[in-house]
Design brief:
This protein has 197 residues and is an all-alpha fold. The protein is 75% helix and 0% strand.
């Protein structure tokens, strides 16, 4: 990153923070139809990854990339993610209804949901998700097992985003930006570790 120039009030890190927030707002708007959420988050990760390659991180670039890539595979990925969330909610609701073995079932369902969520989020952070969701999910599943620390960081990022949204509802519209930055950082961290080995 460049250093602060004479007369510049904020340094480059503050500019990146502002860019992350603008991309977060754009991602929140793009996620509103729900089935576009994986494509929107994947696009945010791709735009933020470009910051390391001196490409502009702007909402305009985000929407231009999102328009080019929304296709049937992206909508199918969104449908699968939405169906998985609905299934998890239904399972947890059934467990809360007092069925026999409900506490154990609720723990198992939450663990399976967390693992699936980590793989799905890590897939959004991978560059392959821009063109091939199957390859991105396969790579994310391998990374989730091989890089348990990175999977823990993903869960921590989701928990932080949820906590911020719970504490102050307007932050829910900014949370996708830092979440996408965290997913991108976890993937870059994993890629760098693989190159070193």
């Amino acid at each position: 990153m460049r250093t602060r120039e004479a007369g510049e009030v904020f340094g480059p890190r503050m500019a990146l923070f502002a860019d992350v927030l603008s991309v977060g707002l754009a991602t929140a708007a793009a996620c509103l139809p729900l089935v576009t959420a994986p494509a929107a988050l994947s696009t945010a990760c791709a735009v933020l990854r470009g910051a390391g390659q001196d490409r502009p991180v702007t909402a305009g670039r985000y929407f231009a990339l999102l328009r080019r890539r929304l296709r049937a595979g992206d909508l199918l990925a969104g449908g699968v993610a939405l169906a998985g969330l609905l299934l998890l909610a239904a399972d947890l609701a059934l467990a809360g209804a007092g069925l026999p073995g409900a506490p154990l079932f609720a723990v198992a369902a939450a663990a399976i949901g967390a693992c699936a969520g980590v793989v799905g989020l890590r897939a959004c952070g991978r560059p392959e998700s821009l063109t091939d969701w199957r390859a991105a999910v396969r790579g994310a599943a391998r990374d989730a097992v091989a890089d348990v620390g990175g999977s823990g960081l993903v869960l921590l990022a989701v928990a932080t985003a949820a906590l911020c949204a719970w504490m102050l509802l307007p932050l829910a519209f900014l949370a996708p930006g830092p979440l996408a930055l965290a997913l991108t950082a976890v993937d870059v961290r994993r890629s760098a570790a693989v190159l070193v080995q």
